[in-house]
Amino acid sequence: MSTIVALDRLLDARRLWRGQPQARAPSRQPTGFPLLDAALPSGGWPEAALSEVLLPLDGIGELALLWPTLARLTRAGRLVALVAPPYLPFPGAWANAGVRLDRLQVVRADARDVPWATEQCLRSAACAAVLCWLQQADDRTLRRLQLAAETGQCLGLAMRPAAAAAHASPAALRLSLETNPARLRVLKCRGGNPPAQPLPWPLPRGEAPVPAADSPHAAASDRA
Amino acid sequence: MLWACILLPQLALDGVLRRHATPDEPLVLIDGPAQRRVLRAANAAAKAAGLRASLPLATAQAICPRFAAVEHDAAETARWHDFLAAWAYRYGAQVSRQMAASLLIEVQASFRLFGPWPRMEALMREELAALGFRHRIALAPNPWAARALAGVHDGLAITHDAPLRQALGQLSVERAGLPPEAATSLRRMGLRRLAQVYALPRAALGRRVGSDTLDQLDRLSGALATPLVCYQPPDHFESRIEFNYEVGATGQLLFPLRRMTGDLAAYLAGRDGGVQRFVLKLEHERGAATEVPVGLLAPERDAAMLFELARGRLDPVQLAAPVRALQLIARELPPFVPAGRDLFDVRPQQAVPWEQLRERLRARLGDRAVHGLAVHADHRPERAWRDHGESAVAPPLPRPGWLLPQPIPLRERVSRILAGPERVESGWWDGDVRRDYYVVETAAGQRAWVFRPAGEREGFMLHGWFA
Lengths: 224, 467
Description:
Chain A is α/β, with parallel strands linked by helices. Helix content of chain A is 31%, strand content 19%. Chain A has a domain at 28-183: 3-Layer(aba) Sandwich (Rossmann fold). Chain A is built from 7 helices and 9 strands. In chain A, strands 4-2-5-6-1-7-8-9 form an 8-stranded mixed sheet, with helices on both faces. The longest helix of chain A is centred in the N-terminal third of the chain and has 14 residues, at 62-75. Chain A is globular. By secondary structure, chain B is of the alpha+beta class. Chain B is elongated and about 115 Å long. The mean pLDDT of chain B is 86. Chain B has a 5-stranded mixed sheet with strand order 5-6-1-7-8, with helices on both faces. In chain B, strands 16-20-19-18-17 form a 5-stranded antiparallel sheet, with no helix packed on it. Chain B starts with a strand and ends with a strand. Chain B folds into 3 domains: 1-25 and 67-233, Alpha-Beta Plaits, CATH 3.30.70; 237-332, Dna Ligase, domain 1 (2-Layer Sandwich), CATH 3.30.1490; 394-465, no CATH class. The interface between A and B is large, with 48 and 51 residues. Strand 3 (88-89) of chain A pairs antiparallel with strand 16 of chain B, so a sheet runs across the interface.
């Protein structure tokens, strides 16, 4: 008993620090894929942060990865903005995937205006999620977007070419979709080590888990 | 009812002075035919130099060597009168500018909103002083009495009939708004005050001075109610600022623009409306004016937002010639419906609602840059969508998430066909389509939506990606 007290005292006196920070609250933004959620330290998309999805090609399931999230957000009545999508989002397919089309807004922008438009959308807090297709983005641009996502408390999702994997990025989460064989690799995730093994793709869909309750009691019990 | 009369003794001069760069230097308004110019009004500095109204211009030049002379413009004065009527409209629903150089406002109905009369009067005086107009204000139970009392008193407030009779009794016959010849004949009869006139037998007085004078006397005392022509605020907003120097860059227009959008916002708040579209006209010395339209998707009236949007449209404009005047014209003023907000909604800093964000994006990226998505009931994929409006029910068919705007020949090697063919044949009336669609997998692992025109055996056209 006395040792515990001594340890507490050492901690209080700031002579001893805990090595590991306390566990983060589980994310309230599940991806809709239980396997992927389990592989991520926060159990979903990092909230109020920028996430990257690196794509070598078009048409390899990038929308299938995002649709469950977009469907969940739009069905909750939240707005989702698509900034500079490479093609026309075909409304029939998006509606069949469960996305509410009236909560979807497409923003057309030139390549040089994409970062600006994305930042405006992220910062405004008017959207629940902002998807952008960045062709050229340097570290500064990404950092700005990351900060804007934090300011606007918004889920930022940036689609980037696979070549960007070679460069570091301030994004909180980096996923890479690969083909031949098709798989999903977690390159970086804030708050934990990325899983060593890539995940199979396509991932089995699961019922979206109940979002963690955002109540002070839950948070308190986590800390206790 | 209680009527306030705001008398504007120097309306024409004040209108000129408030646009003038140096109002402290001698300035006069001149009038009359070219052979015989007469001073119409003089400002304080000019009066100090010995100039006064109705002096011939030649005499004035002999008295004072240097003064600025501005031609009196009746239309300009009328515009200022209108401007002040629009300003007064916020204090009462009944505003009349029927009587020259004065505004009449029914104020009793507004006491609950603005507080009792002394507070309201102070508010009016403060705003008029800020606008730069001399004024005298009087309050009386009827507009005619208010106008007559404002001519001799400033700040008089009469709310009941007994004190009104007393105050009117003290009024001299020349100041009562009677026909001039009647006032002269009354004076010659030895009647100086209205009290003496009211004491006379009515029928005898009527025979001597005519029924017009009797009517005016009755109006003053409130016995005869004569309706006034009430001011109706215009259904559009126009504002123009003329520069006395040449403006070569749009950046220099921002300051006047901020004042104009501020005026527009104040005007919109007054009529509880919003603006959906307005035009900025940049007038040049010669040649047609440059028009910069500013359009919004939904009516707005926030001054800062209107300024920001107008600025976004003005910034990229290349000026072909220096600007001499800036004009703001707003004709489409639909009712304003404020967006509902949650009282307990904790919003992050710098948060803007979607409507404002959308306008900001459109201002920079173009009018058609932001759009929605909707399913349109058509079998042809290129026509099965709309960028606005209600969405039809999507048929449960395999359709790709990405659609190419134009089908292109498929360059990737096809490793296998996953589904198809699905015949799409429609539109003989506008753009006939006969195609067999397949879902294929390419060698690289992409899933593509491709078609062949019906009947052909070679080659695929790529029309979408199953992403």
